Amino acid sequence: MAITMQVLKLLLQCKCVRSMGFPSGQFSRVDNFSTGYQWRARKKDSQYSTVDTERYSSLVREVLSSKTSSQTPESIEDEDCQLYGPVIRSRPPSQQPKLPKNLHPLLNEAKGQSEYVPGPLARITLQRDSNKTSIPSVTRILQKTMPPDQAFYLERWKRRMIAELGEEGFREYSLNLFRQGKLFHAAIEDTFTQEIPSKEEQECPEDVSGYIESVSNVLNDITGVRAIESAVHHSALQYLGIVDCVAQYRGSLCVIDWKTSEKPKPTLRHTYDNPLQVAAYVGALNSDHNYNYQVENGLIVVAYKDGSPAHTHFLNSERIMPFWEKWLLRLEEYAEK
Fold first, then answer.
1. pTM of the model
2. Quick one: which H or E segment has residue 27?
């Protein structure tokens, strides 16, 4: 019996060694372990001594063996619907475009299309007498009715420039842009009005030489110039403006608007209110009795100071009509202020 008890103690000691991660055979003499210490260590109570290990192991195996898919937006939405009820989505606002109250025609039925007859260019100056002091300009109307989002970005750009240049620096920067614009328009005017320009006259100010180089290819497509820097007045809608140029562009008679920019404007969307401005000039010219012809098309030419090729945005009679309607809406908005 004593021998049997000793064998059992040795077997228990070997089992403890293996459970601690020691490979079998590492300890050749298991009798070095003190059996008395082993039994003293077991007397220490543990908080897990009362746990049903078999049941706990079964529960762990069940959890680990189960496979659950990760949540997706759809499953989360389904779960929310069960907890809080279905989501009530509001109907989107009506997408129908707003129409002007008075849809005034762009063309003048009293005028017809007239062929180009070479002659002196129209260059009517804008004269404001006592009767016309209250007639607003196209530029003023567009400024006073600028959409909030467009005004926000413009103001943010202005603040950023002031932060970089300071108040005085930004003022000087703005005046320089205005001066360059005037020089550029003057250089374009000289190009169309001088029949045989001399070498000295062909030279343009250094500040605008890049702009002229930018539009050089466009100038080759322009013929039959009829008006340069000429005032127009819409007698029915009562607004004024000055057109940059009226000429044939690739065979189509257009109101042409020259623009300068430091950033590329490859699409019409990048020109903001310029299409409305051109449409307003077209309508005013067609209404003005100083011009015995009418125009159906518009052209926006964006020139760049670095001389890179200008972007042209041609508005035929079909494309210009939506901008004419938007212009009429802005005109009504201005009248209501």
1. 0.69
2. none
- Cα gap 119→159, rounded to integer Å: 48
Share of the chain above pLDDT 90, in %: 47
pLDDT in tens, 66-111: 444 444 445 555 666 677 677 665 555 556 678 888 899 999 988 8
The pLDDT assigned to 94 comes to 57
3-state secondary structure labels for all residues of 191-216: HHHCCCCCHHHHCCCHHHHHHHHHCH
Give the E-state strand segments of 115-238 in sequence order.
222-234
- The residue annotated as part of the active site, out of 144, 257, 273, 337, is 257
Q: What does the DSSP 8-state code read for residue 316?
A: -
284: number of Cβ within 10 Å: 24
Evaluate whether 241 touches 284 at the Cβ level (below 8 Å).
yes
User: Is residue 259 among the annotated active site residues?
Assistant: yes
Any idea which residue has 């400024």 for tokens? Answer: 143
Q: Is 52 a catalytic residue?
A: no
- End-to-end, the C-alpha distance of the chain in Å comes to 115
Q: What is the dihedral of CA 78, 84, 85, 90, to 10 degrees?
A: -100
| Catalytic-role residue among 144, 244, 306, 337 | 244
Asked whether the predicted pLDDT for residue 280 surpasses 70, the reply is: yes
Q: Compute CA 28 distance to the chain's CA centroid, rounded to the nearest angstrom.
A: 81
Out of 101, 132, 158, 259, the active site residue is 259
Quick check: is 257 catalytic? yes
d(CA 286, CA 24): 106
Q: Give Cα 276 to chain centroid, integer Å.
A: 19
pLDDT at 116 over 90: no
